[in-house]
Amino acid sequence: MSSQAAVLVAPRRRNTAALVWHQVRYEQLSFWRNPQSAFFLFAFPLVFFAILAGVFGNATLATIGGRPVTGLQYYTSTIVAVSVMGACYSQLAITLSQRRQDGILKRLRGTPLPAWVMFAGLLAHCIMVSLVDAVLIVVMGLLYGVPVPTHWAAIIVTLIVGAAAFCALGVAVASLISNAEAAPAVVQFVFFPLVFISGTYFQITSRFLNDLAGVFPVRPFNQALLNPFALDRGFAGHQLLVLAIWGIVGGFVAIRRFRWDPRPE
Amino acid sequence: MDAVVVEDLRKSYGATRAVAGVSFTVRYGEIFSLLGPNGAGKTTVLEILEGYRQADQGKVVVAGFDPADKRTGRQLREQIGLVLQELAVEPHLTVRESVSRNAGYYPNPRDVGEVIGLVGLAGKEKSKVKSLSGGQKRRLDLALGIIGNPRVLFLDEPTTGFDPTARRGAWEVIRELSALGTTILLTTHYMDEAQELADRVAVISAGQIIEEGTPATLGGRDLARARISFTVPAGYSAADLPVGAAVGENGRLVIEADEPTELLHRLTGWALEHGTTLPGLTVDRPSLEDIYLSLTAAQGAAAAEEVPAPRRGMGRRG
Questions:
Q1: Which residues, at least 6 apart from B24, have a Cβ–Cβ distance to it below 8 Å?
Q2: Is residue B119 left, alpha or beta, with left meaning phi > 0 and alpha meaning psi from -120 to 50?
Q3: Share of chain A above pLDDT 70, in %
Q4: What is the pTM assigned to this prediction?
Q5: Domain map (residue ranges) of chain A
Q6: Min Cα separation A34/chain B (Å)
Q7: In a 3-state reduction of DSSP, which class is residue A10?
Q8: Which DSSP category does B146 fall into?
Q9: Which residue from B135, B253, B273, B291 has the fewest beta carbons nearer than 10 Å?
Q10: Å from A100 to nearest chain B CA?
Q11: 10 Å Cβ neighbour count for A4?
């Protein structure tokens, strides 16, 4: 009977969609069981938005493309962007390096779960958090009196492209970080300066800084969201392209360099 | 067909040869133990079998698959279970959730409740993993290793750091799994563990198998001479005894014999005749530990000259 070993394997695997759902479900369970991280992911951007909105309100903060933009409109866009980046890039990079360090990734690699299903579970989680954050901030903006945006398709497409690109970058950074203690520092070291020069917290008027920041993914993401939220415009083609290119670069690094083992050869 | 076939396996990390030509087979249904000191190459062998590491050279077949072949990786991992040396469980799920989650990865998993009971965590189903004790987490780790109903189970030093009671418990579980038909390959540096569990043992040292056999016959143990040992009774000297023997360490006499029965009869007869006793009388053969120590000591001395460079940055490798 042992001679059938390899042949006898005609496993009744559950179908792929069910497996992905299974993984998504447990990823969610694991996340919501850790109320601390859940609180920070959702409450932090909201508090930030409330402060900035309170300070700047409906006063004109900037003039973009000849249009006056109020503080509320401006920060609706950039705080949505920064919370998506927090959920996709920072959280993912830190979570993955922590799980690798704890041996959880290696252990998971020993099960038949395909790698892409594990990533699908994480991606679904990041997108869920991004969407919840975006909805919370937009609703809060509406309560403060921000005009209702009209270009919803542009908002949704931009959020999805941005979330995907920053997830890819998060996995890429996790692949390059070797120990989990260093992960938050490295993640912020890359992220914080970019957020500042990209005009997330205050508008940047230096042409040099704007050109520089325009090459990196954060400012294009801000601009692509400012379009529908503040300028009553649709898709920001050029900015979305820059985001997509960063996403592809991140994905490439992630695929080439991702490690499961805390102690590679 | 065999569950595991390893032929002339070789693996180096830089200049250090971790595995230097290892061959063995494990038959289906067997408990096979790789016994050796830390750094002997046990974990490297195991991680090549599990598909974590690529061999430099040699042939490896596990449950009919080549673990290095990425195309059949998923099929292989549906057939095997593993418990690594380092504990790895997610803190925020409950015991039942953890086991259920992994059960969903396999085409033909064991019953979740049954597995929890088997590893002795019944009653803890709803406890958060982070609230478990170290020993309980290890048992959960074992549950995750067997939930997929593996044909071949790899256990890397399954009882390292256990207290004596927990070790007995773990052995019980391993025997039970074996009785249910699981093939088990375990590494250990405890002689008694190999002796208790294994059908066959291979002693590995400095990346090579230096001896293979059943626990009873390893290193010619069954053929070794018996040792009779006792203290010379007060008022007598070694010269008074009916057999020639010299006093060894701590004033004890040690007499080796191929067949101790006749010798014992003479000694005890002499003692009764003189109205005395043979204090602390024991009769034994070299323990598995004696054999193991003599085997690995000889090998270690030879290997020390051969592989001088310590491996850096690798952490603890079996």
A1: B4, B6, B32, B202, B209, B212
A2: alpha
A3: 95
A4: 0.81
A5: 15-257
A6: 6
A7: coil
A8: H
A9: B273
A10: 10
A11: 10
Percent over 70 (pLDDT), chain B = 93
Task: Please report which confidence band the pLDDT of residue A249 belongs to, taking 50, 70 and 90 as the band edges.
Answer: very high
B261 burial (CB, 10 Å; 0-12 / 13-18 / 19+) is exposed
A22 to chain B, closest Cα gap in Å:
7
Is the pLDDT assigned to residue B8 strictly greater than 80?
yes
Q: At what angle do helices B134-146 and B95-103 cross, to 10 degrees?
A: 20
Q: CA–CA separation, A193 vs A197, rounded Å?
A: 6
The whole-angstrom separation of Cα B75 and Cα B65 is 8
Q: Do A30 and B90 touch (CB under 8 A)?
A: yes
Average pLDDT over residues B1-14: 92
Confidence class for position B301, pLDDT limits 50, 70, 90: low
CA distance readout (Å), A20 to A13, A28, A181: 12, 12, 30
Cβ-defined contact of B102 to A114 (cutoff 8 Å): no
**Quick check: B7 and B19 in contact, CB under 8 A?**
no
Q: Give the chain A residue nearest B16 (alpha carbons).
A: A265
Q: How many CB atoms lie within 10 A of CB A150?
A: 12
CATH fold of B4-220+289-306, please? Rossmann fold (3.40.50)
**In the predicted model, what is the mean pLDDT of residues B108-122?**
93
Residue A115 to residues A89, A123, B37, B155, B223, Cα–Cα distance (Å): 19, 12, 34, 23, 52
Task: Give the Cα separation of B69 and A224 in Å (integer).
Answer: 44
**CB-based contacts of A14, cutoff 8 Å, min separation 6:** A22, B104, B107
Residue B168 CB partners (closer than 8 Å, separation 6+): none
pLDDT digit string, tens, across residues B182-202: 999 999 988 889 888 999 999
Cα Rg for chain A, rounded, in angstroms? 21
Supply A110's token pair.
């020993």
pLDDT(B135) > 70: yes
CB B94 within 8 A of CB B77: no
Burial class, B265, CB count within 10 angstroms (exposed 0-12 / middle 13-18 / buried 19+): exposed
Alpha helices by DSSP H, A11-114: 16-32, 35-56, 71-85, 91-101, 104-109
H-helix or E-strand containing B261?
A: helix B260-273
- Best of B50, B71, B105 to substitute, by most chain A Cβ atoms within 10 angstroms, is B105
Give the strands of the sheet with B252-257, arranged side by side: B252-257, B226-231, B282-284
Lookup: tokens for B231:
């203290």
